Amino acid sequence: MLKAVGQQLEDGRWLAPSAERNREPILAELKRVLPNAGLVLEIASGTGEHVIHFASALPGLTWQPSDSDATFRRSIEAWIAKEAPANVRMPIDLDVRRLPWPVKRAQAVLCINMLHVSPWAATQALLDGAKSILPAGGVLFLYGPYRRFGAHTAPSNAAFDEQLRAIDPEWGLRDLEAVVELAGAAGFRLGDVVDMPGNNFSVVFRSEG
Ligand SMILES: C[S@@+](CC[C@H](N)C(=O)[O-])C[C@H]1O[C@@H](n2cnc3c(N)ncnc32)[C@H](O)[C@@H]1O
After folding, report:
1. Cα 67 to averaged position of ligand 1 atoms, centre (Å)
2. Which of 90, 161, 193, 194 could lock onto 173 through a cystine, CB 3.0 to 4.6 A?
């Protein structure tokens, strides 16, 4: 898994080319929807490059990275050691399926590229966990590749989906409409769905409170 992510530096930081590519377009969307202050919980932070980048561009917010994988948490720690951001907390061990989550309240929850590399039960758990810690109107921001209206949005996504299912039959691109339905049942209303580069989508939900 990690080898597929990218490359590790001597100080323990991992570099993912995908994070380098998508961080600016994602940041532009985050600037539109996040509050000016408060705590943002990032689920499945991966290498930590995203949280470092977003925290530096949005210094009014406090950022809490997390991941269920200890190797990724070590990479996040190494990024924090290198960049010393004032508004990024140390990463926490958070597996979305272990409810209740170790964070009790956040103004926003961010989850980039996790739904397709985890079982469908993790999507349900993400929605339930986020709902339990967000205030009314609080943002749950998802980013990643999705099927739309029963079909892939690009041949490259179809190939990616096949690769994922070969690794684990429970993985694979989700139908965005199914995620929206599950989110509605969990107490979220859909805000924006934004077309992003590389056949990805940003999806913004708000907690109904
Ligand atoms: C493809 S990586 C994405 C990492 C990062 N968000 C990015 O976009 O570069 C998927 C991440 O999901 C995390 N993950 C998978 N299942 C998880 C779970 N049940 N709870 C929390 N994180 C999970 C993995 O450890 C990994 O960091």
Report:
1. 6
2. 161
Pocket of ligand 1, beta carbon within 6 A? 16, 18-19, 43-47, 50, 67-69, 72, 94-97, 112-114, 117-118, 122
Segment 52-102, tens digit of pLDDT:
999 999 999 999 999 999 999 999 999 999 999 999 999 999 999 999 999
Per the CB < 8 A criterion, the answer to whether 140 and 134 are in contact is yes
Which of 39, 190, 53, 163 shows the shortest CA–CA distance to 112? 53
| Low-confidence residues in the chain, pLDDT < 50 | none
Strand partners, 144: 201
Outline where the chain has alpha helix (H).
Answer: 2-5, 17-33, 49-57, 70-83, 120-133, 155-167, 176-186
CA distance 207 to 209: 5
Give pLDDT, residue 60: 98
Q: What is the rounded CA–CA span in Å between residue 75 and residue 66?
A: 11
CA of 2 to the centre of ligand 1 (A): 11
**pTM of the complete model:** 0.97
**Closest protein CA for atom 16 of ligand 1:** 118
Nearest-atom number in ligand 1 for the CA of 45 is 6
